[in-house]
Structures are given as structure tokens and as C-alpha cells.
Amino acid sequence: MNVSLNTAIVANVHKGLTKGKLAKRIFFIILGAILMGVGIEEFLVPNKILDGGIVGISIILSHLSGWKLGWFIFILNIPFFYISYKQIGKTFALSTLLGIAVLSATTLLLHDVPVFTEDLLLATVFGGIVLGVGVGMVIRYGGSLDGTEILAILVNKRLPFSVGEIIMFFNIFIFATAGFVFGWDRAMYSILAYFIAFKTIDVVISGLDESKSAWIISDKHKIIGEAIIARLGRGVTYLNGEGAYTGDDKKVIFCVITRLEEAKLKSIVEEIDPNAFLAVADIAEVRGGRFKKKAIH
């Protein structure tokens, strides 16, 4: 499908977005899809290394039939576009269609371009990284480049398995098939590339400064709170709590930090009160409030 047509359709759906935000979303979905196409056609496929999901099936079918990869990627994802349109929503479905259309077009255009490297390890590592950056970018801006996740979400409602487990089983089947088609060494390289891409996607979606929430219970809550403000530059909130076993009133310190500040926070708490209760958890997103870091001296 023509990319400009996709842009027009998505623009019509996103009437609530400003033109700037809409343009930004479209730009990064297109850029992410192009990067994934580069990772596939310039690193993985020429070296007979697979990705997981629908793209992995498309690579196998392309190898066996001689048809270009881009056609399989687009055709096999059409049913999942329809399902996502019905089950998840127009915005996600149209963003996904845009991404898949650009991905398919990119792989078609790059099909005859000379490969970047024939070294299997370099192709695996850099192919996984480039692919992961592209996929992560598209997911971060509200789209998808593979129908596997959509299928897993729907099947999850009928089977006693999580979405992650269903995707894992699906990919095990794909990589096992790759072992018979391309050889078991290529299947192992494919698993390595998939793992690298998976980790890269996490970094792109969450960012290097991934946010974490911290809950601290201590009799020295005032001192710890003031130390966090002074030494980390982070705001804190004091919550009222009650010990279920003792019935004593407790003060709970709540604050949001980045991943890079976690070690410093633990050091502050242990230094002031080695017996304090400390719980740290990942946060998917932080908005509003006073999360912005204050100046520290």
C-alpha cells in the first residue's frame, strides 16, 4: 500500500493529536520499519539467519519458494491487521499497517543491495541490534511489525498460558524449522540474534534512564527523605501506614528514581538505617508530578 495513503488514513484517525505529534509518530514508525528492513535484508537473511514470528516464517517461505521476502511479510500479516482492527482498535491497526507496509517495501528495495557483512557473528550481533532498535521504535510510537503478538493476545484468552509463553512456543517451532531448512548452526545464530533484538527492544522502549519506584519503611523516615532530596535531587512523598502484625503506625517513603540512581538510593538508605525496609520496582511510564530532577550540590 502507498505510504502516503497510510499517512492520510492515520491522520484522519488521530484528529485529537496535534499535527506535530502526529507527524512525529508517523516519522518514527516509518524510521523504525526501515531500520528493521535493513537489519533483515542487510544482516540476517543473506547469512541465512532468522528472526522470530511472522517474519521468521516469511524468511523460510521466501527461501523455499524463491519469492521476495517483502511479499510474504505483507501478505501473512494481513489477517492480523484485520484482527487488530476488530479487537484492539483503529489507531493501533492503522499504525501497524503503516509499519508493515514500509517494512515490506524496504525489504523489496534492499533485496539486491550488497550485504554489509558475511561474518556470521557480526551479522548476528549487529542485525539483532538494528532490528531491535527498529521494532522498539515502532512499538514505542503505537504500532507493531509482527502479527505474532496479536495472535498471542487472542489465544491467551482460551489457553492457560501467558502471552510471553505463547510467543516463546511459537518461536521455538520457527527456530526448530530453521534448523532443518538452513542447518542447526544457523538456527543457533538465529536464537542469538532474536535474544539480542529482544533486549534492544526493551532498551528502546524503556530508555537507558528507565524509571523505578522505591518504597522505604523506616523509623528514620525524615532523615532518609531529606537525604534523598539533597543527594539525589528527587522529590519524596510520605505515606501513612500501619503494621498488620504489630498495629504500629508507620511512615512510608515513596519516590521515583531512574535505573542509574538505584545503587545510590540503596547506599543512602543503608547508611542511615541498615534495618530499613526497601522495595524497588520497575515503572513502565512516569507523567506529571515533580519527577523532574532537582539541582543537587
TrEMBL record:
Entry keywords, A to Z: Cell membrane, Membrane, Transmembrane, Transmembrane helix
Chief location: membrane
Cellular component terms per the entry's GO annotation: plasma membrane
TM helices/strands, residue ranges: 26-45, 65-85, 92-110, 122-142, 163-182
Domain of life: Bacteria
Topology within the bilayer: Multi-pass membrane protein
Locations listed in the record: Cell membrane
Name by which UniProt lists this protein: Membrane protein
Annotated organism of origin: Sporosarcina globispora (Bacillus globisporus)
Organism phylogeny: Bacteria, Bacillati, Bacillota, Bacilli, Bacillales
